[in-house]
Amino acid sequence: MSICIGNGAMRHQILSGAVLSSGIGCVVDGVFLEDQTGIYMLKQITLKNKKLEGVTLDLLCKVLTSLLIPIQSKEFEQVQTVEGFVDGLMEYIDNYSICDYIIALLKLDVFHQNSRSIQWFCEQSFITKLLNVFLETPVSIDRIESVARIINEIVIWRHSHQIGAAANVFVDFFNTDKSLDQFVTLVFSSEMKEIREFGLMVISDMLTCNTSRSDLCTIPVGGLPAIFKNLVSHFENMQLLLQTKNEGFVGQTKIRLGFIVLSLLLSNYSVIYTLVDEHGFLDSLLDIFYDTTHQCTIFRQIVYNIIDTVVQRPIGEMKYRLLKDNALLERMIDVDVEALKIHEKTNFYPDYFLINSMMMYNIYKNKEINTPKFSAKLDNQKFTSYVEDIIVARTEATSVHFGKKHSPDNYFDTNTYTNFLLNSQKRGDDDDLF
């Protein structure tokens, strides 16, 4: 153990680390045979007078992560007895190996479903410590990136239903955290783009975990989950960020804002739909979508998903306006016509051509709306005729190529080979085969 944490030659350190992280049953049993052995390694992370770094820190994290997985492991039980352990982890959170180890500890709810590791971390003010990384001075980009990565991993686990119930504990603690309001305010007020981008990533992830499970929830803003309530007060700032000039590229900030708007439209909260419509987020996103000074297909795909969400879900106000917005519908036609002209000249289509065409097709296929508040249908004859005459035929056309039977160059046909042999025998040239 002593050699592994740096008290010896480098080659001995690497060899001892390889043995301890092998996952062999007798090694794992040996480590946890006496409680002090495992605790000795865990305490190295909490020491204030000895800063671990480089190979030593990487090896220690590799060993500790490997020892977590076997069913006979007692490591997490020992983690809970080490005073200041979470604070020790936070000191090294900018290190990728420590970040991996934290994720492995949190993911114990997958391997050992009764470990309650996420709940234990939350009870140690883990979420407050994560959010406070954004509030530190000076700011460390590596540290805030690690925080965003950890939260993203938990959200992915929640949506994959591997640890749905355990991850919900994290969501509940997040919504009641005392630093949440200050964190959201900082994200929209900071001049540092890394804080803004990684902060928006965290907000977007947490929005997806707080959607209503009913078809359409009509509670007021005050009854929304805390992440929604805090974000609503910054909608004006969101609009300002969306309206900043692109300068030839979209950038991560607008991509993250696009994901946030998509999460808002998937929330199933009626009051959120109304506020998104009032602040004109859809118009701002479409302006960026049709800006030809950039070629950000990722952003255009997000906008396509947003439009598809509006036309296929009960988002009454926005769908009503989408069907009645002649300026947008005719803009779509103009963009498609211009793309066809570009193809005639250059023999290739611009990157927005197919996505714009699919948006037109989806609006046409969902051209009616019937809600208690709205009842309307698409009545722009120019748009309808253009889609029916050109877009539908183009979208629904099937290629004859995939209906044909194709044989590769090295395809071996037994019937052909048999006929070849028979014909050779008839000609009496069997010897030519050998």
Characterize this entry briefly.
With 434 residues, the chain is mainly α. The protein has helices at 10-20, 25-31, 35-43, 54-68, 75-79, 85-91, 96-106, 108-111, 117-123, 126-135, 141-159, 164-175, 180-189, 193-208, 226-232, 235-242, 252-265, 270-278, 281-289, 297-312, 316-324, 326-346, 353-365, 381-396, 414-427; strands at 368-370, 375-377. The protein has 25 helices and 2 strands.
Fraction of residues in helix: 55-70%
- Mean pLDDT across residues: 83
Characterize the largest beta sheet: strand count, sense, and whether it forms a barrel.
2 strands, antiparallel
Number of helices: 25
Strand order of the largest sheet: 1-2
Report the end-to-end length measured between terminal Cα atoms. 68 Å
Can you offer a commentary on this structure?
It comes from Entamoeba invadens IP1. Belongs to the SAPS family. GO terms for molecular function: protein phosphatase binding; protein phosphatase regulator activity. Keywords: Cell cycle. InterPro entries: ARM-type_fold, SAPS. This protein is mainly α and 434 residues long. It has three domains: 1-79, no CATH class; 84-209; 212-398, no CATH class. It contains 25 helices and two strands. A two-stranded antiparallel ribbon has the order 1-2. α4 runs parallel beside α7 and α13 (180-189) packs parallel to α15 (226-232). It is globular and about 80 Å long. The N and C termini lie far apart (68 Å).
